[in-house]
Amino acid sequence: MRVRFPPRAQLMQAKEADRKLLMANVLSAIEEGCWEFLGPNNQHCYCSDKRVNTKKMIEQRQRWLESLTNLVLESSSAGLVGKVHGDNIHWMQGIQEVFDKKEVELPVTELGFDDQTQQWGFPLNRYQPGSRVTIFQDITTTGNYLTRLQRFVEHRGLCVDRMVSLVNRNPEQMEEISGVSYASVLHFPMPLYGRSRYLDRCQCPRFDYYGACITDRSQLLS
Questions:
Q1: Which of 107, 151, 155, 194 is most buried, by the most CB atoms less than 10 A from its CB?
Q2: How far is the C-alpha of 156 from the C-alpha of 14, rounded, in Å?
Q3: Are the beta carbons of 167 and 140 closer than 8 angstroms?
Q4: pLDDT tens digits, residue range 150-159?
Q5: Are 166 and 72 in contact (CB under 8 A)?
Q6: Into how many domains does the chain fold?
Q7: Percent of the chain surpassing pLDDT 90
Q8: Partners of 207 in the β-ladder
Q9: CA of residue 71 relative to chain centroid, distance
Q10: How many whole angstroms separate alpha carbon 2 and alpha carbon 189?
C-alpha cells in the first residue's frame, strides 16, 4: 500500500533531501592548506588547515539560493544587504531572482567586494533611516566579516538586527554574533586552532584567508 504523505511531511522530506545534497556539496568543496581568520572585532586570530571553496558550491547554486531565501523570510526585515564574493560570485543577484519568482517584495542590496560604494539593486541611501535589515555572507567562520559589514551598514544610518549565511563552518552552532541574531542554512563544523597549536599541525602552508601565498610559516606568527 502506497502511503500519501501530508503536505507537512512532504515538506520535511524535501528539506532533508536538500540538506543532504548541500552537505555533499560542501564536502566536495573542501580544500586543504593554511588559512588565518580574525575573530569578531579583530580580537584573537584563528588558523585552520581546511576551508570551503565557494566557487565549487555553485554546482548547487539554485538549492542554496532557495534554502537561503526561506531562511531570510523566517523573520521580518526591511531589506537584505550583502557583498559580491571575491571570486565575482553574485549571490545577492541570485537571491533577487528567487524573490522575484516568489513575488516577494523585499529590497536586496549588493555591495562591491573591494569598493563598497559600488552598489547593485536597492541603494542603501533609499532605506528609511533606522530601518532594520538583514546582512548576508556565504561562508561564516568567526563572524569577523559580518561584524565589519554590520559596522559599514550601521554607519549609514541603518540597524542590523539579523545575520545569515549559507554555511556556518565554526566548530560551534552560533546563534548570535556580536550580540546580533545569526542563522545559517547549514552548520558544517570545521576545526579552528590558536596559532601556537596550529603551527604544530600545519606542515605545508599554501594560502592565507585573502588568497596570498604563504611561503614562510613564520608569517603566521606576525
A1: 107
A2: 40
A3: yes
A4: 999 999 999 9
A5: no
A6: 1
A7: 59
A8: 213
A9: 12
A10: 38
CA atoms of 187 and 208, how far apart (whole Å): 23
What pLDDT does 85 receive?
79
Rg of the chain over Cα atoms, rounded to whole angstroms, equals 19
* Pair 146, 166: CB distance under 8 Å: no
Q: What residues contact residue 219 under an 8 Å CB cut-off, 6+ apart? A: 208
Nearest-angstrom CA–CA distance, 100 and 120: 15
Residue 111, domain extent: 7-221
Does an H or E element contain 93, and which?
A: helix 91-102
The CATH number of the domain where 25 resides is what? 3.40.50.2020
pTM score, two decimals?
Answer: 0.81
The alpha carbon torsion through 185, 39, 111, 99 (nearest 10 deg) reads 10
Query: Euclidean distance between the first and final Cα of the chain, in Å?
Result: 67
Q: 80 in a domain, yes or no?
A: yes
Amino acid residing at 107: P
